[in-house]
Amino acid sequence: MRSPGIQRWRKAAVAVQAALVVGLPFVRLGGESALRFDVPTFRLFFFGATLAAGEYFILLVGSLLFLLGVITVTLVFGRVWCGWLCPQTALMEIVDIVKGALSVGGKAPSASGYARRAVYHLFLAALALLVSVNLTWYFVSPYEMLPGLMRGEVGRLTVWCVGVFWAALMLQFELLGRRFCATICPYAKMQDVLMDSHSLTIGFDTSRRDDCMGCDLCVRACPTGIDIKAGPQVQCVGCARCIDACVKVKSRKGGTSLVGYMFGTPTGRFRDALTFKSIALTAVIAGVGVLTAAVYSGSPDVEVSAVRLSGAACRVAPDGGRVAPYRLELANRGGADVSLSLSVSGMDGAILAAPENPVTVAGNGRRTMAVFVKAPAGVTGKTPVRIVISATDPKSGAAAEARTSFFCP
Question: Euclidean distance between the first and final Cα of the chain, in Å?
């Protein structure tokens, strides 16, 4: 049984979450997806920023901050993730709404009951397909996938990913359901360790146990079938249906609910949950986050790396100068194309030769090419000479350099 109290807000939260998850792949910043991992190029597009494979340390730091954030939120707000923000919970809420509308379950079905069950299972298959396609959009842009689908030109890897996601979701919908939260979900198992006596929980006011009418509507309203009167349990998903059920019954008698959100005890307050642990973790997250943002924002839009091709021998030019080959990699983290002029310094008379100079690098793109550095006649020997290969865009002012050595025995 549900009342229009907390469940109304939870349904609104589910609707907002669904809109964000489905709509985010269609949002573009700087010509690219707001959030997408591009498998062919191993680049992560993250709200206007582009992370190449060599910059994944930022992703590692972000993952660490996210983990610390989860621990902090759990310390203070307990199961708020499970009840309000978890995608698994949101999907099961949608499934429960449709299941209730079709009156599926209960006694042995009639002929119409079998028809309703068939419609219900078809809905599960369609929902799983929609979610699977939506998950794939975080790897393949919908602006590429949807036109390709209309032309029948979807890649095998894309089809394989959708199929795997769909099979996993159907297994979840048909066999696990809410039991996933109680038996498989690792976060649910961790909460008993992360939470303390001041964390926000849904609990039963034991001081008013004599006011309980023994109707057990809180048990019947619980999707996992637990008895909240027995105390907090790992199977609880924080859906607050037990609160609404008790409110509905007690309000008829002019009383107040025996079940509700509480910070440890019915008289607990938010400030009680602000322990040294939660405050210290928040300070660490803020400090590391600000430091990481400062380091990343200070990185240049253009990056250059140069490596001497050790397997290739030097050549002697007609004027006696020596020519050494290098592998040059140019990266453009900006959204606009840049035209980079290449040059070499650090050795008087040195000349850099490239297949094209200036070279154009697309926005959020990379270019790899072979270049040659020619030293003037007389520069010989086995002692490396330090040189600098520079790339400059006169239009935007973007510039970068790579330090390497000229070694040509």
Answer: 85
The two tokens of residue 71 are: 């621990």
Q: What are phi and psi of 396, to 5 degrees?
A: -95, -15
- pLDDT per residue as tens digits for the range 50-78: 776 666 677 788 888 888 888 888 889 98
Question: Residue 349 sits in a domain of what CATH number?
Answer: 2.60.40.10
Residue 57 belongs to what domain range? 6-273
User: Using CA atoms, how far apart are residues 29 and 40, in angstroms rounded to an integer?
Assistant: 20
Q: Are 45 and 33 in contact (CB under 8 A)?
A: yes
Distance CA 151, CA 137 (A): 17
CB atoms within 10 A of CB 66: 11
How is residue 290 written in tokens? 């600000």
Decide: 306 and 389 in contact? Cβ < 8 Å.
yes
Q: Identify whether 323 is part of a domain.
A: yes
**Which residues fall within 8 angstroms of residue 266, CB to CB, at 6 or more apart?**
203, 205, 207, 260
**pTM: predicted TM-score of the whole model, two decimal places:** 0.70
Query: What tokens were used for 308?
Result: 């001497």
Distance in angstroms (rounded) separating the CA atoms of residues 191 and 189: 6
Cβ proximity of 228 and 262 under 8 Å? no
* Number of structural domains the chain divides into: 2
